[in-house]
Amino acid sequence: MNITVKFFARYKELAGTAAAVITLTGDSTVATLLAALEQKFPALKLTPERTLISINQEFGTADSTLRDGDEVAIFPPVSGGSDSQKFALTDQPIAPDTVTQMVVHPHTGAVVTFTGVVRDNSEGKSVSALEYEAYPEMAIAKMKQIADEVREKFPDIVDVAMVQRIGHLDVGDVAVAIAVSSGHRYDGCFEACQYSIERLKEIVPVWKKEFSPDGAEWVEGDHNPSLK
After folding, report:
1. pLDDT of 81-100, one tens digit each?
2. Those residues with Cβ within 8 angstroms of residue 224's Cβ, 6 or more apart along the chain or in another chain
3. Helices 136-153 & 189-203, crossing angle to 10 degrees?
4. b/e per residue 145-173 (b: at least 16 CB within 10 A)
5. At which of 51, 75, 99 does a domain end?
6. 8 A C-beta contact, residue 192 and residue 108
7. Percent of the residues in the chain that have a pLDDT greater than 70, as a whole number
8. Is residue 191 predicted with pLDDT exceeding 70?
9. What is the Cα–Cα distance from 194 to 65, expressed in whole angstroms?
10. pLDDT band at residue 223, thresholds of 50, 70 and 90?
11. Which structural domain, as residue segments, surrounds residue 39?
12. Are 199 and 137 found together in one domain?
């Protein structure tokens, strides 16, 4: 069987390519594929604790069965109008007011927003810029999943929008904007907005590389949905 593998963030750098087609024989699992990848790309060290796997844009585990034609993505833990507008990745500057307007309707009386901005420091280090990379198709799917979770947990929420910046960002640039609307301020919109950004950082496949005077390094999170 032939499996298309996509690499992201540091794994793309270690493999020296963004994608590869791997041929496996017999009944194969993700574990079989990982072993084949380490053999083909010796620089890769794909430990289950630090490696996330998706199969056709859904999280998988080492025991997940593979089928011919599957698309598998390999990436580190996440660092984070119409549906195509409300859930978006963009390499252009984000205007938070535009994201807010996406969730305003005649029957909404409250909008809570979160705007994430690039700062000049991280864990005691100076930061001059960030570079964001994403797995686009899965990122959009997971944003929509978060919106569904929000509506289930907070039934009075009217609408949700999320826009994530990718590419090169300087200090002060907006990295992410989230807006949540409801009929009234006490309908859960504050809690729903906080829930949205926390979940985005957990399950949306977006990574950042920090640039400092000491060089550049990928920043990885600790949350691994495959282990839950």
Report:
1. 445 468 999 999 999 998 99
2. 49, 50, 52, 77
3. 150
4. ebbebbeeebeebbbbbbbbbbeebeeeb
5. 75
6. no
7. 92
8. yes
9. 35
10. low
11. 2-75
12. yes
To the nearest 10°, report the CA torsion of 134, 137, 204, 35. Answer: -80
Write down how long the chain is: 228
Q: Are residues 98 and 182 in the same domain?
A: yes
pLDDT, tens digit, 9 for 90 and up, residues 39-89: 999 998 887 667 888 999 888 888 899 999 999 999 887 654 445 468 999
Which residues, including other chains, have CB under 8 Å from residue 51's CB and lie 6 or more apart? 11, 34, 74, 75, 76
Name the domain count of the chain.
2
Q: Name, in order, each residue with C-beta under 8 angstroms of 96's C-beta and a sequence gap of 6 or more.
A: 113, 115, 174, 177, 179
- pLDDT, tens only, 127-174: 999 999 999 999 999 999 999 999 999 999 999 999 999 999 999 999
